[in-house]
Design goal:
Layout: E1 3-9, E2 13-18, E3 23-28, E4 31-34, E5 39-42, H1 46-63, E6 70-73, E7 78-82, E8 85-96, H2 99-105, E9 112-122, E10 131-132, H3 134-140, H4 145-167, E11 171-183, E12 186-189, E13 198-202, H5 212-215, H6 221-233
Antiparallel strand pairs: 1-2, 2-3, 3-7, 4-5, 6-7, 8-9, 8-11, 9-10, 11-12, 11-13
The chain binds cytidine-5'-monophosphate.
Length: 234
């Protein structure tokens, strides 16, 4: 398998073609952005940690029956994945009130959401990923009814599995974002799962161990990523 040309550069990753049309390489950068890229910075070795964390989580989910795009970790910052035709929808699952939900509804962060809440956003950097619902997805033809149902089922399954995984590591999975795509007609979980895309709170102290430390200038950003990496990978 030979690494080809880069064909996409996002905020946190670069995608490279390979000589196999079914496979691509995700390269994890240290760049961090927040508030629709109005705030920019780097988090030392974030790419290495997110690659490792995502590898462990994809393998865990796959072993529990969730189809993911993960094939193999190639190096510190590179992961071989199936080439997906991305469905332009971000799915957010929330177990606690936090972030944009707290702001939108004028609520304190921390309250438990039972059952968990599922939200959809349209994947668009220029528009700042606006919130949409299933009717938009259907009307725009971004996914079929069957795919929407499958994505919802998989998102809740991922939530149950990850909630349990992190609970065993003394972390509360507050919320997270996932993306899906098609590969030979089947829906797969794509992108990455890491402290950039999830909120983790320490179970006893509720200390934030995720990208909110960068977003909110809370300090000890690298330490938080390292701590999550240690608990996930050991
Ligand atoms: O900001 P908000 O509260 O909507 O984020 C919910 C969850 O989704 C958080 O874990 C956040 O890290 C993640 N997210 C993401 N990418 C986005 C928006 C949110 O990973 N574009």
């Amino acid at each position: 398998m030979k690494k080809g040309e880069p064909f996409y550069e996002g905020k946190a990753k670069i995608l490279y073609a390979t000589d196999d049309p079914d496979l691509i390489i995700q390269y994890f950068k240290d760049d961090a952005t927040a508030f629709n890229a109005q705030k920019r910075g780097t988090i030392h070795e974030k790419g290495i940690m997110n690659n490792r964390i995502s590898e462990v989580l994809f393998k865990y989910l796959e072993s529990r029956g969730v189809p993911t795009h993960f094939v193999q970790r190639l190096s510190d910052r590179e992961m071989l994945v199936k080439r997906l035709q991305i469905i332009p929808v971000e799915v957010i699952v929330r177990n606690r009130i936090a972030g944009s939900l707290a702001k939108r509804l004028g609520l304190e962060e921390g309250g438990t959401l039972s059952p968990p809440v599922l939200e959809h956003c349209y994947k668009s950097d220029p528009l700042g990923d606006p919130m949409i619902n299933e009717f938009h997805i259907r009307a725009m033809g971004w996914a079929t009814d069957a795919e929407i149902k499958e994505i919802e089922k998989l998102s809740f399954r991922v939530n149950e599995l990850l909630k349990d995984f992190f609970d065993q590591r003394n972390l509360i999975l507050v919320d997270f974002k996932v993306e899906f795509g098609r590969h030979h007609g089947k829906v797969y979980l794509g992108d990455e799962i890491c402290p950039d895309t999830c909120r983790f709170w320490e179970k006893d102290t509720l200390e934030k161990l995720d990208k909110d430390r960068f977003r909110r200038d809370l300090g000890k950003v690298e330490d938080a990523y390292q701590e999550v990496c240690r608990r996930v990978c050991n």
